[in-house]
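Suppose you are handed only these lines of text.
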Amino acid sequence: MPRQTFVSTAVVLVLALASSAQGAPEAAAVTVIRAGTLIDGKSSAQRRDQVIVVSGNRIVSVGDAAAAKVPEGAKIIDLSGAVVMPGLVDSHTHIFLQGEDPAEGGYDIQLLKYGIAFRAARATVAVRRALEQGFTTIRDVETEGAGYGDVGIKEAIEAGYIPGPRMFVVTRAISTTGGYPLEGYAPEVDVPKGAQIVDGPVEARKAAREQLDHGADWIKVYMTHRSWVDGKGNLVSQPTLTLDEIRAIVDEAHGWGKKVACHAYNGVGLQRALDGGCDSIEHGLELTDANVAQMIKQGTWYCPTLSVYYDHWAAESTPDGQRDRKRAAVHGPSFRRALQAGVKIVFGTDVGGFSWTEPIAREFGRMIEFGMSPMAAIQSATSKPAEMLDMSGQIGVVAPGAFADIVATRGDPLRDVQALEQVGFVMKDGKVFRDAFH
Ligand SMILES: [Zn+2]
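From them, the structure of the protein bound to zinc ion can be written out as follows.
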């Protein structure tokens, strides 16, 4: 049939074009990186004087410089004066938020006054900021009223239109009536909500299906919302979804082979998140010993986002100010408890909740302050999230077979973790995005 003939001719043509475009100088696609020190993201020991061979977008070999054969015609990148690591992973970002100053309208203005194109333009800057700081992968945990914009940004990055990290996106996120801003407006006025609002397990499952259908890699659920300090001085958090509702979402997501991230501070909502089978607890401000034991038993991930709770405290004499101080006060001990018990911890920052002009890597310092070793902190941003994202061996490691996502710092982050705020070299997918060393 003529139509078939046409199709097969077209296929042959496309293949021929593809091979002439890529195939030409095979050797030119090979890059050799000389690493003075290598922290591979997985092993606990660092190695000196290594040679990493990259072909196309993959690492093909890693070995001692003394024994290494440099392929002929390879491009050489000399990082022998630097510490080389896998590209970093931030497991909790918001590219559609910009750390809005309350004096400039705060969170609400984003939803009320800024159109989606304006917000997408700013998200384009945000993903570039992540990449230039060495974060070659992010799990972006909701668009805050910008619908499925995260899927669009991810597609634009993958198609090469804009620079940015590998993205795992959750789209709109899910909460309940009374469980998410915008709020505080006259009841007669319909205002948009920053998350998809559901009531009842049927709506909950339907929202998960819609989001998965439109490209969500993960589902994000708010299991607690407001928090305050009660008369006895305890932090209390309003629970949102019921156990039936969260179970419907988790069941649906797991059926699609996807996971569920649950924003949960403490108390009833956190307990429902764990009983409902959440895959990761976001923030987890106040984890009890029983919570921690359940997380270990169920293999639940913990993404603490410590630093953001030290920003912008309200005045000490106000209820909000007391809450802000209490949140930070219980968070550190929770982190220690989880760490000591062996809960699987991933690095996450909530950047977007604070400005993208702040260094994302400041979170490492807090993790170390609360008892994590610098090497474990680096692994919480490399091989650990790779495991959580079902990308072990692909990202978060400098090893043969992995994507060539490689970063480097001048200073030694094992001695001074602030070195990670000064990433000077960034390669993603085999392409050098930034090189301040040459
Ligand atoms: Zn967040």
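What can we learn from it? The longest strand covers residues 75-86. The mean pLDDT is 93.
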